Amino acid sequence: MRGNTIVTNKDLLNSNTLDLKDCSSGIYIVTITTAEGNVLHTAKIIKK
User: What is the CA angle 31-37-19, rounded to 5?
Assistant: First the structure.
């Protein structure tokens, strides 16, 4: 794990999907935070 931010999306109010089509295969950690920086949810995604 490199710890790099690969996607930042500040406009998720009208969407509930995350497009990872341009990302290579691997394991990703997705963290959803509020505008104030409070963590709402963290999930591990495995892209094959």
Answer: 35
